[in-house]
Write a structure and sequence with these properties.
By secondary structure, the chain is an alpha/beta fold. The protein has a single domain (about 10-245), classed as TIM Barrel, CATH 3.20.20.140. About 40% of the residues lie in helices and about 15% in strands. The protein is built from 10 helices and 10 strands. It has helices at about 30-40, 60-70, 70-75, 95-100, 130-135, 150-155, 160-165, 185-195, 210-225, 225-240, and strands at about 10, 45-50, 50, 85, 90, 115-120, 140-145, 170-175, 200, 250. Strand 5 (about 90), helix 4 and strand 6 form a beta-alpha-beta unit. The longest helix has 16 residues, at about 210-225. It starts with 9 loop residues before the first strand and ends in a 7-residue tail after the last strand.
Amino acid sequence: MLLDGGVRGFVDLHCHWVAAIDDGARTAEDSIAMLRALRDVGFDEVMATPHMRPGMFDNDREALERAFAAMAPVLRAASDPLPVVHLASEHFFDDVVFGRLIRGEVLPYPGGRSILVELGQGPFPARLQHRFFDVRKAGLTPVLAHPERYEPVWRDDACLDPLLDAGAHLLLDVCALVGKYGRVAQRAAEKLLEDDAYEAACSDAHKPRDVDDVARAIERLERLAGPEEARRLLADGPRGILGGTGACMSPAGGLR
């Protein structure tokens, strides 16, 4: 159920609901259950952001587009309303994916203005700030997934300053606020939240049961930051990042 009994209009910028393409939903039933649960906690729009990570999830743009399109009949068959869904990708920021980005072979967010990127758990790559500037030169704003989960941030979150200087936005995995990734990540998330460092927040849901954590995390976000800031992170901030419209599927599953 919606946490306040009303429509919230949240936008989830990061969710692994497309079935059988990465470590997210395994079946079409899981996909529907996840989307249904996200709608119940207030998300009217949900991005599909399956991994593009060579060597682990060898997905390219065409494979992800096929997997997304294959979900259309599944969504049409759903018996209850679902969020509007869109396709993007979570791009692992290595040399291979960076090359695809420069060649225009990636999946930005709808509107084509921003792109979701993730880093490895260990030290940040050399010249990362310069590469983020290159992303900007390519006409895209990098959106850094779950910075609170990176070890360099645990040691000193000032490591994010050069990335912010390069124009990056920080995307909170809201479940970090309830300890899903451990106490160190939770403390990092709380500190970045207190510093107003985040542009938006997301579910990063991989399984239907993850949405239970999302619901608890949204409640804690509202307690920590207040309802207005929570709404900015879950609704206004995501819409600002999207900054336009693009190909999506309506709740009935039709492309529009």
